């Protein structure tokens, strides 16, 4: 990995992403892009990405969190709010994040064993929700020394793993349909990346607190599931350094945002010395993924090759999803390149670990 190339690419991404947040049509993935700007601000030692993130967030801060309706549109706002608080000390952002997390805990429908259901009344467990819930619970719990919230973060990962991790491959299904006791047929790449990013973040937060009542057993199960998943992911990397949008189907197209997510998860797993991870393989896969992700950022700072919003379906359906750029992809890419520059030290600084 050439750090100068990574730094230059991250600068291009951030220079485009900040203004885009304020000028382009609102998108449910904007909060992920906002959080990516905060990672970039820290890694680059630059105030501009932070200023852009705050400019996007300030109207939301004034209005207060809007926690009715589609969960994807509001749940991810907790993470950038927490990161702005950590970077500025402004408690209004901490309060905003707490209100979002309160809504996740109090207002969302749950399965009988506690998994957040994103599209009620259908009783379904979606792999994406592992990212849109667990890291915010863990990070807020860490900041406020709230053990119950950290335990809730671990519980979300464990229940998602129980429903969605394939026993044969170790990879994750997109959706579990509890009412008909079925799972979606494909192993969607970006969904697996969401779980990997969420699990590494929760482990990094909770791993600093050995007294956490969730205990080593729960964290051990998360770590074991993550190591099995990442080893399987590593074996499926394409020669280009990317992954197919349906992981085990080479007749599906290569996709960029999953590669960014996998690189982020692998980099963290290597830094934390994740037990069970095949380190030599993971290191080589991580380096190829960073190179591939960097190559997908064009001269204008646009992260390309990202599949658009993707509900579950069959192979033909996944292949029909258009490819371009999207805020969640840009956000993941900035996080990945920022941590590639500064490693776990960056993440620890952002979370207060």
What does this structure look like?
Helix content is 61%, strand content 6%. The protein is mainly α and 353 residues long. The chain has a single domain (3-351), classed as Glycosyltransferase (Alpha/alpha barrel). The strands form 4 sheets. Strands 3-4-5 form a 3-stranded antiparallel sheet, with helices on one face. The longest helix has 25 residues, at 327-351. It is globular and about 45 Å long.
Strand arrangement, largest sheet?
A: 3-4-5
- In the CATH hierarchy, the third-tier topology is known as Glycosyltransferase
- Mean pLDDT rating: 93
Relative helix content: 55-70%
**Helical segment count:** 13
* Secondary-structure element pattern, one letter each: HHHHHEEEHHEEHHEEHHEHEH
Count the domains: 1
Radius of gyration: 18 Å
